[in-house]
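Q: Protein A?
A:
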Amino acid sequence: MTRVYRAAHPAPILGIKVWGAIAYNGCTALVFVEGTLSSARYIKNIIPPILLPFLQCQGDVLFHQDSACGHTSRITQRAL
């Protein structure tokens, strides 16, 4: 019989969430995200004030996101 022992972590694991964009000639500042980055928060707090000005300075670029729910929702796709 095989026994598997798992060490319990002595304290809650703390972490931070950040959002940022990079390009071949620059990057945005990191945005610290508290809680979940919902579509509404992404549209209000990141796209207009940070992402759009950054993309406008890049010229002809391809914008790529991961498949996070806040990135793929219909409302976010319409906002972009």
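Q: Protein B?
A:
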Amino acid sequence: MEAWMMQPISFSAKDVPMNGQAHSDPLVITLLIEEWGVIRILVDSGSSVEVLFYDTFKRMELSDGILVPSTYRIYGFNGTVTIPKGEVTLRVSDGCGYLDTLTTFCVVDVASPYEAIIGRPWIAGIKGVASAYHQRLRFSTYKGIAEVVGDSQAARQCMLVDIQINEERRAHHRKEKNKAKEARAAEEL
């Protein structure tokens, strides 16, 4: 390992955003993916895979032809299973010249307020440390410790959209359940 790779990465009270937030927002950052500014990337150290949502993939004007078939399924924390449309390896950078990696994303076609999710493999790959409390992702570079600062406003907007998506999903599920109940009642008559 190079000496610069062994620099300590730390956070202090000075790093805590002082804009009155509750410091419990998810860490949402902006990175360049294939030169596209992807502005709502959830940094999720609990995720074992990097995810690019299909609507973002299409907005980036990428073709389904570059997708490689995926060999696995993604299991959500609530037990839901998502079958990926495929995988794609794309260049990810911070736009400042400190970070430039090739990253394999699992492309999924599900509704999400986020454009992508960066998980444990990517964070470990850049030897980074993410802190939602401090709203920062820090990593070592040959020039010193670099950081990507989170966007608390985007995080809160994503949380609100996520609540709305879940409410719509629940309403649709209730409607389907009621239809099935009515169909059974009509059958019994």
